[in-house]
Each structure stands twice: as C-alpha cells, then as structure tokens.
Amino acid sequence: MERRGAVTFDDVNPADGSVIAQVCAADRGFVDEAVAAARIAVNGEWGAMPVRDRATALYRVASAIEARSDCFVAAEVADTGKPVALASRLDIPRAAANFRVFADLIKTAGIEAFHTETVLNYAVRKPLGVVGIITPWNLPLLLLTWKVAPALACGNAVVVKPSEETPATATLLAGVMKEAGIPDGVYNVVHGFGVGSAGEFLSTHAGIDAITFTGESSTGAAIMAAAAPTVKPVSFELGGKNAAIVFADCDFEETADGLAEAVFLNTGQVCLCAERVYVEQSIFASFVEALKRRAAALIPGWPMDTATTLGPLISKEHRSKVLSYYDLARAEGATVVTGGGIPRFGDARDQGCYVQPTLLTGLAEDARCVKEEIFGPVCHIAPFQDEEEAIRMANDTKYGLAASVWTSNLKRGHRVAQQMKAGIAWVNCWFLRDLRTPFGGAGISGIGREGGMHSLNFYSELNNICVKL
Ligand code: NAD
Fold first, then answer.
1. Substitution candidate for ligand 1 out of 79, 200, 271, 444 with most atoms within 8 A of CB
2. How many CB atoms lie within 10 A of CB 286?
3. pTM for the complete prediction?
4. How many Cα atoms sit within 13 Å of 275 on the Cβ side?
5. 271 catalytic, yes or no?
6. Residue 446: which region, alpha, beta or left (left: phi > 0; alpha: psi -120 to 50)?
7. Residue-wise pLDDT tens digits, 315-366
8. Which residue, by CA, sits nearest to atom 17 of ligand 1?
9. What CATH topology corresponds to 242-427?
10. Could you report the per-residue pLDDT of 353-365, keeping only the tens digit for each?
11. 253 counts as catalytic
C-alpha cells in the first residue's frame, strides 16, 4: 500500500551511483497499520490454519520465488551491486530453500513429553503473534527469508523492515506472497531507517511480540534497549571479526582457494567472512603470495556482467568507512601486500563504490584493524608458531561468529575447531551451511541460535500441559 504524502528516500545503485527508485519511508502511523493488519491475520485464518496447509502455502512461496528468479536476481543486483553470478547461485536460490526447509521441518517437528506413573506433561506449540524482522543489506532476501520462513511456519504474522539500502526484494516478496495465496496481513513490509524511523517504530511497538534482527552489534544493543520496556524476546545475529587458522599440513591450493572466497566473497560483505588469517610460519610467505595471486585474479566489473567476481561496496558511506580502515592500517604500521585503494575504470563505475581487494600483514595483535569489523574485501595475515598460539590469537576477540581451520590432520581439525570461540567453526571449508543446524554467535556476535528447530523454538510459544493421571 502506498502512503499519501509519505517522505521518500533514494534507492541507489552502488555500481554507478544512479538512483533506481524512490522509496516511501513508513511513519509511525504506517507502522501501526502494518502491525494491526498482522494482528488480524494471526488471530484469523492464518493463525488457525492446520500445519499441513501452512506448509503447503510455504512450498508455493518457494516455487513462486523460483518462477520469478530473474526478477529477484535483477532487483538484488541493482540494489547491492553484487555480481549477477553470485545472486543467481546463492541469494535467490537460498531464499526459496529457506521456505522449503522450514515447511518440511514444521510438518515433522515433534513436541516434548515427560510421562511418569502419575503425571503426563507435554508441550504444545503456538505462534508468538506478530514478529518484527529487521535485516541488513549484504544478503537482503536470503537473510530476510531466513527469518520470515520459520516465523510463518510457526503461524506468526510478520512486519519486516529491510535495510534502507536494499528495499527491492522484500517488496517483490509481497507480490509473491499474494500469488502464493498467503492471506493478507501475514507478510507486511515497512521501509525506512533506524533511529527516529521505521526500525525504531517497530522495535518499540507495543503490538510487536518479538524482534529478530540481523546487523551490526551496536545496532543490536540499541534494539535490545528499545525492546526492553515491553519485554520482547529478541534473537540477534550480529557482527564478526572471524579468524581462519591455516596449518602447514593443509592442502595448500585448496586452502588458498577457500580463503580467497572467505575473504572476498560479496566484496567481503558477509558476516562470516574471514578478516584475520593466521598461517603457520613455515608456509607464511608462500601463502601470502598465493592469496595475492587470487586477489589479482578477481574481476571487478559491472554487476550484471556474468564474468564479474568483485562488485562495489554497498554505499559511498560504507566505502568511506572501509577506506578509512585501509588508511588506519598504514598508520598502524601495516604492510599493504596488495590493494589499499580505489580502482579506476574510466566510465560510470568511477561514480560507484568500488575498492581494491586488499591484503595486510605486519600489524600488532591489538591494532584496531585486527580488532574491529571492517566488512570489506580485506584481511590481515599473521604468522603463528604453534597450535596453542594460533588458538589464543584467534580467540582474542569480543566477537564470536565464525572460524575456519585448515589442516590435513583430522584429529587436529576437530580439536582446534572445538576450541574456537565461535558459533560455527568450519574444518577445510567455509560457508557450507545445512539449514537445520544451529546458527548464531558468541560474545557480541549475537544472542540465541536460529536454524532448524532452534528457529522453530524461537518463533513459537511453547505451552506445557500437565495432566494428573
Ligand atoms: P545495521 O545494523 O546498520 O542495519 C541493519 C538494519 O537495522 C537495517 O535495516 C537498519 O535500518 C536497521 N537499524 C539501524 N539502526 C536501528 C535502530 N536503532 N533501531 C532499529 N533498527 C535499526 O547493519 P548493516 O550495515 O545493514 O549490515 C552489516 C552488519 O550486519 C555487519 O556488522 C555484519 O556483520 C552484520 N551481519 C550479521 C549477520 C549474522 O548472521 N550474524 C549476517 C549478515 C550481516
């Protein structure tokens, strides 16, 4: 629904700075209407729908996303500047997969029961009600549907607020919901910003029963404070400063390929990207060279060109932040192995938000560039002497989202992975995800776990029934 007289803001293509669309910012009244529509839906047909029918509706949503895949891909690429090959391979297929996985799960989700001679306790699963969903710009539809799908599977209605940088695919999803026969009011989109805007209106709203959020740790803290007066349950997936540990006995080429992906995928704008790479001393110099070769092989280009492997950053503002870390790294004494600046194209891309892929060495472990999340195509590579030192350095962080360990010694792989302060630790791989597994962060990287049954439990109210026999 368009709002009369609404304030609008620009949706900008980060590849060349062109304006794609004008977006209506939701005011407080509009957020009230969205929450009210969601309440009616959850108290009506949707909340009462048998689980099997709800699951069937979610399968239809998945198929409808796939049927309109080209449209979703084009919108995601225009909003984010990510390479079309990546959006086609990752973002949009995963959005459809999110609906399938949670439709499957809700049909088979069991309940807890405890039976003694005299008493039977069992749990029943009910919707929480109206869930507020606030998401970032890096994997817009993928991360939004990661929350929408389980919330709907559990019978909730949702009000989503996508990032102001990437409003398109959340809006397209509304059309798909309608096409798939999801009742009106189940899925509502409000656009806008954080403080003093739709994000704040949603997280403080008395009619919102829970908030699920993905974004920066500091934003999570602000949302937690905003949600506190109404004691809303929160689930937070936040930032990271993820470490990779490379042992000398790794499969060298496979590890270099894997880490090039872990550092540069989506121009380094994945919360799981590795920004700290620790390499065993004996292969340090050759590994730095191997990563440098892979950085040089990246193809920065127009996002819709299928050959492009490195798109722009999301915005001018974010580019200034990343470039300020490139400068800070030099000031902190780093050696810039490659990159450290802006590429020049000689065309409209020079008005975009590109930066060079960058490798740093030589920083102290307490340097800000080693401590703070940069969220760009950059990592610091440092040598280590032994396993103990590698674990200590990897865990010396306030974050705790992800880690990866690269070794051909499987025993060591398990041992080191289990000692990582991280919600997920990969061994000889990165970014492989089974959507049924727990996902979340330690430290300031998050609160709670989503994925599989963990998502269903967050998005449900479990009531215990206690029967004297
Ligand atoms: P952000 O925190 O700036 O914004 C995320 C969303 O929150 C946006 O929709 C924004 O409008 C909204 N928002 C901002 N301030 C708000 C406020 N005070 N109240 C309510 N809403 C508010 O994050 P971003 O820059 O969009 O995304 C990048 C960050 O997200 C990085 O830190 C990255 O690590 C993190 N991230 C984490 C995960 C994960 O799964 N842990 C996944 C992707 C991204």
1. 271
2. 11
3. 0.97
4. 32
5. yes
6. left
7. 999 999 999 999 999 999 999 999 999 999 999 999 999 999 999 999 999 9
8. 194
9. Aldehyde Dehydrogenase; Chain A, domain 2 (3.40.309)
10. 999 999 999 999 9
11. no
